[in-house]
Amino acid sequence: TIPREHIEFFLNRNQIVSPTDLENKPHIIASEDGRLILGGGDNIYAVGSFDSSVERYMVYREGEIHKDPLTKEVLGLEIRSLGLADHKAENDGVHTLTLQNTEFNVRVGDFLYPIVNEYIEPFYTPRAPSDEIAASILSVSRGVSAIGQYDAVLLSKGERDGLEVGHILTIVQNGGTAVDPKTRVKYKLPNVEAGLAMVFSVDDKTSYALILEAFKPIRIEDLAITPK
Predict the structure, then answer these.
(1) Cα–Cα dist 156/195, whole Å
(2) What is the mean predicted confidence (pLDDT) over 205-210?
(3) CA distances in angstroms from 160 to 21, 72, 77, 150, 212, listed in the order given
(4) How far is residue 177's CA from residue 36's CA, in Å, rounded to a whole number?
């Protein structure tokens, strides 16, 4: 088993939502001192549909709309976490919040998502999926081109495909093709194992996985498959 604290840093950092899901979400319209670039300790003003029972929000920025590389189905819009904000007061529909633990600069126009204290398993039990999975890597949390150990990646498969939290997947690189110089026949070369990943967050169409081992540099569009 893997203790939850080993991957707690990645929980609730990025999420996949419907492209229309941000329409009614709270968003930042100004800061207390008029600055556009904000950080920890700054007071911000926001409007939108707030839940009176929620005191802490995650600050998100709109990211990329992801599609399945094969079917071209829209899988969702990725929103990237910037930090936290504590709700302080409300006056005539304008809500005052204080930014906390910001990892990136917060800007006017960024969105707020409520943090709900749901029960999360304290341990993750690694196991292979019972279904045959072949998911593409869509993005990486750090936004780098070469993915390595302990990076979090977004996969193009989710709960509807049989993925569950704790599932272990083998990362493979496309072996490409080669042409026989004598016959000019093109051959598909074997895929090459590049690492291992464990799924830690699952939505209907997508999931997030943590790279546990990286034998080779892993890249966007590499595949995560059921271990053989």
Answers:
(1) 17
(2) 94
(3) 20, 17, 18, 26, 24
(4) 50
